[in-house]
TrEMBL record:
Its main location: membrane. One of its GO terms (cellular component) is membrane. It is found in: Membrane. This is Protein DETOXIFICATION. It is a multi-pass membrane protein. GO terms for molecular function: antiporter activity; xenobiotic transmembrane transporter activity. Belongs to the multi antimicrobial extrusion (MATE) (TC 2.A.66.1) family. It comes from Arachis hypogaea (Peanut).
Amino acid sequence: MEGEGQDHNNNYTRPLLTPPPPAAVFTTESHDIPPISSPRIFGREFLLESKKLWYLAGPAIFTSVCQYSLGAITQLFAGHVGTLELAAVSVENSVIAGFCFGIMLGMGSALETLCGQAFGAGQLRMLGIYMQRSWVILNTTCLILSLLYVFAKPLLNFIGQTAAISKAAGEFAVWMIPQLFAYAMNFPIQKFLQAQSKIMVMAWIAAAALVMHLLLSWLLMLRLGWGLVGAAVVLNGSWWFIVVAQLVYILSGTCGNAWSGFSLKAFENLWGFVRLSLASAVMLCMNILGWTVMVSFGMNAAVSVRVSNELGASHPRAAKFSLVVAVITSFVLGLAMSLVLIMFRKQYPSLFSNDSAVKELVMELTPMLAFCIIINNVQPVLSGVAVGAGWQSLVAYVNIACYYLFGVPLGLILGYALDFGVIGIWSGMLTGTIVQTCVLFIIVYRTDWDKEASLAEDRIKKWGGHKDSKSNGVANNDQQT
């Protein structure tokens, strides 16, 4: 590639002294780093990798917060409509839609491995095929999951909700079925765009959707008095606005060779793709801590793109170093947020309740919450590395064993059998997450990154790619940006 120099001793390429490239090209430049032989080299490479990570993580965090806020805003306005309406929206969002959101996001995460590694290897044409293949699988899954929406009322009755809340939430759930299919379209699109470092367009679309959602929620739910019907119309509309806007961006030709039109190849290798998607879904068994975890979600997406791109480009040292930078950065961010929480532990409970007993309990739980934030900032980064490297199946087993077979039962024993209450339940689940994080650390520490780069090449061939020259891949990428 013109403007690059080759160090034949260390086998890595480094851009020569040329003017800074545009942002879109900057993120797609790929080179393997030199061996880290001194603190100066470590510091230099740390800063370079941090810039690449934050270019991806910043907009990804913003996008996650905006999309997370759609449901939160709907709940906020539902609370002004009435207590029953608030309960109905809250239960549907957290139980029905929340469960399906996790499955769709997890299954869509299979594309982080395939699209990221294909992009790193210059196999741009495969990205669109992978996305279409994921659409087929996720929309088919939605047909099954829609039964949860249809039978939400008896399901909620069965798990102990009151008859009134079950009836209202059940009706609202049926109206929210279009949102389910928006999830199925949205998450593959996002992974498709993330793999190409086209993050800012998603952030702008998410911001526009949030503003529109806020205004229309006020108009339909409060001003026009549509209540839950208005909530369903606006929430469905906002999610489909995101999907359609992103599709318009893709179909307009801005993704170059990554989108070459609809293809029947989307229906090939579906069973293997299903297995990878299901393994990805099982990986997402994290304990969600509101907006704070959106930071870790953004870093999860960024490190997944970086690792998959570098492995696909046969740059094992760069992939490993990206992991190191992401873990350090996430730990520092988690530590900073935890310290702020502890410093204001006597003040922030007043934002949520005026009840003195509730405030006292929140203050008591703050140290555990702070520790949770640190762990839940690091664990998603390790999961993002796993997705980028294609270890979904292995990590799915780790998650099941550590979290569901160990952490959750321990929490139930501590909370109910030993009568420690909510602290016991939380402690058990947190212990499961800690064990899960430690196991992931061990897996990452023992990884042969040269072997992973070789496996990435084999994976690209398996899923329909062909071995082209790296120069052709870079040239194609430069043309599209």
